[in-house]
Amino acid sequence: xxxxxxxxxxxxxxxxxxxxxxxxxxxxxxxxxxxxxxxxxxxxxxxxxxxxxxxxxxxxxxxxxxxxxxxxxxxxxxxxxxxxxxxxxxxxxxxxxxxxxxxxxxxxxxxxxxxxxxxxxxxxxxxxxxxxxxxxxxxxxxxxxxxxxxxxxxxxxxxxxxxxxxxxxxxxxxxxxxxxxxxxxxxxxxxxxxxxxxxxxxxxxxxxxxxxxxxxxxxxxxxxxxxxxxxxxxxxxxxxxxxxxxxxxxxxxxxxxxxxxxxxxxxxxxxxxxxxxxxxxxxxxxxxxxxxxxxxxxxxxxxxxxxxxxxxxxxxxxxxxxxxxxxxxxxxxxxxxxxxxxxxxxxxxxxxxxxxxxxxxxxxxxxxxxxxxxxxxxxxxxxxxxxxxxxxxxxxxxxxxxxxxxxxxxxxxxxxxxxxxxxxxxxxxxxxxxxxxxxxxxxxxxxxxxxxxxxxxxx
Length: 459
Prior knowledge:
Blueprint: H1 2-7, H2 10-22, H3 29-36, H4 49-56, H5 76-93, H6 96-112, H7 144-161, H8 164-180, E1 196-197, H9 224-233, H10 236-239, E2 240-242, E3 247-249, E4 255-261, E5 264-272, E6 279-284, E7 290-297, E8 306-309, E9 312-313, E10 317-319, E11 322-329, E12 334-338, E13 343-346, E14 358-363, E15 366-371, H11 372-375, E16 382-384, E17 391-394, E18 403-411, E19 432-440, E20 452-453, E21 456-458
Parallel strand pairs: 3-7, 16-21
Antiparallel strand pairs: 1-20, 2-3, 4-5, 5-6, 6-12, 7-11, 8-9, 8-12, 10-11, 13-14, 14-15, 14-21, 15-19, 15-20, 16-18, 17-18, 18-19
């Protein structure tokens, strides 16, 4: 579809449409190929799980035609790559049936099968989706590539729908799972991105075979490190969405960009320390006046955004989560955004059993976590009272420049090896006060091996 956009050669669009329309049709292409190979398969030694998924076709989203599908299934990376292509075709061909398929599968994925971090694919077997609201924390797969694919799908949906919801998801995936897939030194990587780790248990329990408590230098299947690299290089395609009706600014990372609007150049620069600071400035530097609409995303996490143009309150219309500002933009114009980064408590749908009675913490687009380096071991015995007030502190050492959060919490003491395994009627110990320190989740595992968790018991 990208090749078609550049060349306008109809056969490229026709081939793309064939690929998605043929998928799920019977007789199955995969069965025909399997028979031609004499029943041999590549995945020798992987057990029955992977061949079983291939056999039932949901692993490749091919169990039935896409037009009949309602759920995000199968291999998470391949799923969102396929849906990215389908959304691209739907927009370019104005195909309402394909658009509705994208909407159905997107909504199922984001409303029922996505982690708070923007991770998708909750099981290691098949690197795949499971069922609605099945989002375990300590065995989460959440492959880095899957969140990159989610960004790609979100970008195509945004191009089609012009709705800030897709940019909200795109930003969530980028600032949490995608950035978290690479260490702060740029040399170590996560393939799998759990929401909770207990390193002492990992070597002894095979349900954790895919979990690494520290980032790795490389992988035998090394898809994630170069995928993160290409996403960082291409980040401009996610920051901005040029459409005929408006230039959409999706999130406010520092950047400079130029766009052609009616044969004129619109040039702008975004300044600020996003996502740490609340103030963002957009300056225009083109020599010619350009009449156009700028659509500024008002993030879902921001309760009371304020926007000014040249020092005065912006006058515009909010449409699908974007503030649309139409005017003659000229050199020297300045847009100022104040995006209060209130520390928010996040609660999961009660159907997510793995987060029952728990709370997660978010500031701006960043999800936070507890880490052993700040809070000691046995993080499962920590709790956060509902009345606790947060304060911001500046990180030091490898976390310098990052905003950390602290609040007063509780700990159940754990020096209890002399105690019985179970006891009747009363708790074995009483909770004690402890200051809890939360760090941005994308920066965990940069200070050695240790426990980590996002969802915390709320007292």
